[in-house]
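> forwarded from #structure-qc
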């Protein structure tokens, strides 16, 4: 049937539909929930996936509202009901910490760009500014609740890779990231966790908090210390490269260029290339899409260099540039870089086919 009507009798308030509860098939369902309904699902729904999905939908709505306000020259004002819902999550000691961590994690900038591509193209800078404003709002509004949750989840028991410890660590580190974003007290917590962490998950989370939110006097010594401690562990050094490539700060592109000359990096090693170049192009949209086009040129240069060594890897690295149609104000720059690459006579068949498809009308 194209349409059905359901009537609820003897119900004192309008019900909130929890659609597809317990349904595991890959289904896309559009429902015009109000903000109040999304908050109700965030707060009371029993199905974990629906509860997380409601949090993501609500966060997406708030980010879009803030982006529209900022585009009009206004200061972004966050929906107070959304902030209240986030506070409720932090104070809920019965809910699975792993679920709370995911509910407090906002949709990523690449996902937001994909959605915006269908509505006139993605504005990378505007998306970053709006998402950052929402994160700042959560961090400053709930600083006390974040710290209380962080301290509550401290665990002196021996490390165990079980669900309970993994969930608690995940939420604790989400709280740490927000606290570091909120200011100096959070950065002090990150420094203490970095120094005293008994496992790699906590140490890397603390390092990321310092690298993403701290000034150079905090960030650089921590990165140097981590390298000194783990330089002989190849997989750990891949994480070190990846973390630095994804710092959303103006100097990251130059840092990536320096890391290309670092002894840890080897252009002949695919995992090293993915950790540094792949992470930069795929997981750092703010810097990769820098207005001067330097990020595009760096990727193009590395693709051409790697093409002679590993054409399949080079072709896969090229993917972020092939999405040039999705971006407003950047698309023609990206297309120009692709055009320059396809005109290179030494380009491999793998890369040429990617370029040809990307540039086809």
């Amino acid at each position: 049937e194209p349409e059905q009507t359901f009537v609820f009798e003897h119900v004192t308030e309008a019900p909130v539909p929890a659609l597809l509860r317990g349904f595991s098939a890959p289904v896309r369902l559009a429902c015009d929930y109000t903000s109040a309904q999304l908050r109700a699902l965030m707060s009371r729904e029993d199905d974990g996936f629906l509860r997380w999905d409601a949090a993501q939908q609500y966060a997406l709505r708030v980010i879009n509202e803030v982006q529209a306000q900022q585009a009009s020259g206004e200061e972004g004002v966050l929906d107070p009901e959304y902030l209240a819902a986030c506070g409720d999550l932090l104070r809920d000691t019965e809910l699975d910490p792993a679920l709370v961590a995911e509910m407090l994690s906002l949709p990523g900038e690449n996902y937001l760009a994909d959605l915006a591509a269908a509505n006139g193209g993605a504005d990378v800078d505007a998306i970053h500014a709006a998402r950052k404003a929402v994160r700042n709002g959560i961090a400053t509004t709930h600083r006390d609740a974040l710290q209380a949750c962080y301290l509550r989840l401290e665990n002196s028991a021996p490390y165990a890779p079980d669900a309970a410890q993994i969930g608690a660590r995940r939420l604790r580190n989400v709280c740490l990231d927000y606290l570091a974003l909120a200011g100096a007290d959070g950065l002090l917590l990150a420094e203490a966790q970095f120094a005293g962490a008994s496992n790699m998950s906590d140490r890397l989370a603390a390092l990321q908090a310092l690298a993403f939110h701290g000034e150079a006097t905090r960030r650089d010594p921590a990165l140097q210390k981590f390298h000194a401690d783990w330089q002989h562990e190849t997989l750990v050094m891949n994480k070190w490269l990846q973390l630095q490539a994804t710092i959303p700060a103006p100097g990251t592109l130059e840092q990536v260029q320096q890391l290309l000359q670092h002894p840890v990096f080897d252009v002949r090693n695919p995992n090293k290339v993915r950790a540094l170049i792949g992470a930069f192009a795929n997981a750092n949209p703010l810097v990769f899409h820098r207005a001067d086009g330097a990020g595009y040129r760096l990727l193009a240069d590395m693709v051409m260099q790697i093409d002679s060594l590993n054409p399949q890897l080079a072709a896969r690295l090229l993917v972020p540039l092939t999405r040039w149609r999705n971006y407003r104000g950047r698309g023609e720059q990206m297309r120009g870089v692709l055009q320059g690459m396809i005109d290179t006579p030494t380009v491999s068949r793998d890369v040429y086919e990617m370029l040809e498809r990307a540039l086809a009308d």
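QC bot note: The two ends are 40 Å apart (CA to CA). The chain has a mean pLDDT of 94.
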